[in-house]
Specification:
The chain is mainly alpha-helical and 324 residues long. The chain is 68% helix and 6% strand. A 4-stranded antiparallel beta sheet has the order 1-2-3-4, with no helix packed on it. 35% of the residues are buried. The N terminus is likely disordered.
Amino acid sequence: IKAPASISTGGHHCEHILFGYKSKFVMGIQQTSTAPNTAVLPKVVGASSAAFVEIGFFHPVDTVAKRLMSSTDGTRTMSEIVFKQAHEKPLGTRVMSLYPGMQFAVAYKAFQRIYKFGGQPLVYAAMDRNFKESFENTFGKKHSKTMMQATAGCLMGIGEVGLLPLDVLKIKAQTNAEALGNRGLFTILRQEKLRDLYRGAGWTMVRNAPGSFSLFGANAWAKDTLFNNNLDAYWKTFVTSTVGSVASIVVASPMDVIKTRIQNRDFNDPRSGGQVIKDLLKQEGPTAFFKGLTPKVLTVAPKLIFSFSIAQYITQQCEAALSS
């Protein structure tokens, strides 16, 4: 938000910029011209609304994937792993058991979508202004844009570690609810050590950096290679997002499994990430690095397209309402 750009001494004329919109007040009548590329409010509303709708549809699938990745007992059935204590309960109870930790999930997903979808284009724009020539000299003019998009995504992925406490609590609620008891968010933040909530921060950055690099880089590559950056139909956006999403999930899967196992342990479990890897390789073998990959690949592409579409639609409606 910027301060008033100009205010007339007579009080009849005022021009300011609010959330990226240039507004002019003349004799009490507001006249607004939009600048959608820099507007903040519509992006916040669109991304957060998309996050809420996304959680309602895809939180159960995410819960299933997290529980499969966290499972180390080969004697349990699939139903026992997925539904835990509710595996013998009626269907409705089993379905509701896939919605644990909603307060953490809503907070985490809203902040994550706003941060990642809204921040990456800003980082890319800054890189384009300041480092375009360097990227062109290093990667060539044809691939420089893709590499800048990927690098901007990588930086945003590393910075996403700031949201880790909400992600930790969400995963614990999905896979190890006993560690949380019946405590709420603020009670947990008050009682637990902050460093425990940032457990696995290093592994999270190691997982997010290549994952976000692949997500935005592969997406940009697909746009350029397959469609020459001409996305004039919805199905083209679906294809490019699928390429980016699948690449991101496959590349980040091993680190995602380690991160999930570090985060879902009891708060007093002292094992390091290295020890978790040793135990995994010893007890389950290297294929365990890709546990839960299939449900994630099958859902991440439609989830991303779904979320992106909702965000764009609501953003456009907000822009139209503010401009009028």
